[in-house]
Amino acid sequence: MLNIVIFGPPGAGKGTQSQNLIDTYHLAHISTGDVFRAHIKNETDLGKKVKELLANGVLVPDSITISMLEEEVKKNPEAKGFIFDGFPRTVPQAEALDAFLTKIGTAISVVVALDVDQDELKRRIAERKKIENRADDAEDKLLKRIDEYFTKTVHVLPYYKNQGKLHSINGIGKVEDIFASIAKAVNTVK
Ligand code: ADP
Predict the structure, then answer these.
(1) Which residues line ligand 1 at a C-beta cut-off of 6 Å?
(2) Catalytic option among 51, 134, 144, 152
(3) What does the buried/exposed string (b/e) look like for 63-88 if buried means 16 or more CB atoms within 10 Å of the residue's CB?
(4) What is the Cα 6 distance to its own chain's centre?
(5) With CB atoms counted within 10 Å of each terminal CB, which end of the chain scores lower, N or C?
(6) Catalytic residue among 128, 129, 152, 161
């Protein structure tokens, strides 16, 4: 199996590059943000629980996120591998993912971390807001999401660096050039 974690702060281009990864490697894509938003839209019990958290740019508790992620993986028993987009966002999530993948006889192959500075992130999200109108793209919520990233999520990087799986990619430039760098990193483990 080829299992890729695509990693980066809000606005780094995870969604865009995930689509390129899907097209190239034909893997199942799990975006925890998308799954949460679908639950909210469908007004499920989980959706009701997490609605406020998402609207405010706060991370959902690990226990909820981890069990949801495991459910999503189990829904794809035929997959040749997975693209994990927006997960793991904390070290306990990274540990839980490793334990879970070991249990089902696989592992993370590679972690692609998109590197984008804060000014560029804010510029991109301001643009996205005009198109998608996501509640959590509002200025104060965005600052909270960036803060969550730099206090909690950033610690996931050394976790994977210690495993020798981390590839940092410059996330500024043309989408196709960035993807070429990503594909090069993925192809080292294929
Ligand atoms: P972005 O990367 O642009 O911040 P996402 O769509 O990935 O947006 O996530 C939106 C929100 O969903 C997050 O701010 C958080 O509330 C919740 N979320 C997504 N993934 C996770 C996760 N792995 N752990 C906790 N909360 C998450």
Answers:
(1) 10, 14, 32-33, 36, 53-54, 57-60, 65, 86-87, 89, 93, 136, 145
(2) 134
(3) eebbebbbebbeeeeebebbbbbbbb
(4) 5
(5) C
(6) 128
- Give the side-chain half-sphere CA count within 13 A for 29: 18
Domain boundaries, given as residue ranges, for the chain = 2-183
Positive or negative: CA dihedral 75, 78, 84, 88: positive
Region 181-186: mean pLDDT is 98
* Nearest partner of 57 among 151, 160, 124, judged by Cα: 151
Which tokens hold the place of 130? 């005009």
Preceding omega of 10 cis (within 30 degrees of 0): no
Classified as helix, coil or strand, 53 is: helix
pLDDT digits (tens, 9 = 90+) for 126-183: 898 889 888 888 888 988 998 999 999 999 999 999 999 999 999 999 999 999 999 9
Q: Which CATH number fits domain 2-183: 3.40.640.10, 3.80.10.10, 3.30.450.20, 3.40.50.300?
A: 3.40.50.300
Q: Which residues contact 160 (CB under 8 A, 6 or more apart)?
A: 5, 7, 94, 108, 111, 166
